[in-house]
Prior knowledge:
four-stranded parallel beta sheet
Amino acid sequence: MIISQNRRNLWRIGFLIVLSVWVGGCIPQSKNEQNTAGNKPNVVATSTIIEDLTEEIAGDEIKLTGILKPGTDPHVYEPVPADTVALEKAQLILYNGYNLEPGLIKLMKTAGGNAKQVPVGEVSQPLQLEKNGENVPDPHVWGDVKNAIKMAKAIRDELITLSPEDKDKFTQNAAKLTAELQSLDEWISKQIATIPPNQRRLVTTHDAFQYYANAYKLEIIGTLIGISTEEQPSAQTVKRLVDSIKSARVPAVFAETTINPTLITTVAEESGVKLAPKQLYSDSVGAAGSEGDSYIKMIVANTRTIVDALGGKSQPFMP
């Protein structure tokens, strides 16, 4: 009798355990549990700048994959098989547009998958540059921080469409980022104003700073190569640039982190002007731990390098 009762008790305990497991499995997962299970939306960003802005706005609510690594030149980047996999898995692809990343744009148009493809750089009205005798849109829109604000808002809106339940977090993060960008925009103008007016002249390796110069009142005297870094300057181009530098009495010229500095160093030597001691971040943020490892930090670093090399006196950015 006692044995039979014990068996019934054991059966009841077993039944309750099975029932609790079954009920627990039927209860919908919380958002955190779903995220832990790997159910976050898949988002791909092509450039390091777009990846950084997206990360600031999205936080941990998405699975973000950046294709280009810090220091990689988007103009000449050749996609690898892993890029195809990332694009095919994505639900949203954020890219710059205006043909900044031609290899990736071509791959996006041919790869499978149903991801929404959004050229966030194209929310800004483009300036024009000459390429092979024709005017084409300049893709380096982020040089004007006001354009970066537009890009941030576009990213926010696309993330909300993708994951509406995270609208509040995306909105709050975007508002915080926008406030910091507005502060940055004002800070840049104040730093440039410290440069003597007749020295506010910019010479860089390639045409990546037109938006920056246009927004913050610098004159671009010339560049060594044009819109794309795959171009190779002729001896005549180098000579013309050297003559322009001498004529304009430019205090310094600037190399860039994504381009071999050899030729621009030669230009500086032949012009009799100094090469700025620090390179500019043009098409990519810097490596982790560098002074330009985010969009905001790269713009701050560039501004301080330009201002100090051209005879101004920069102050730290305090957002």
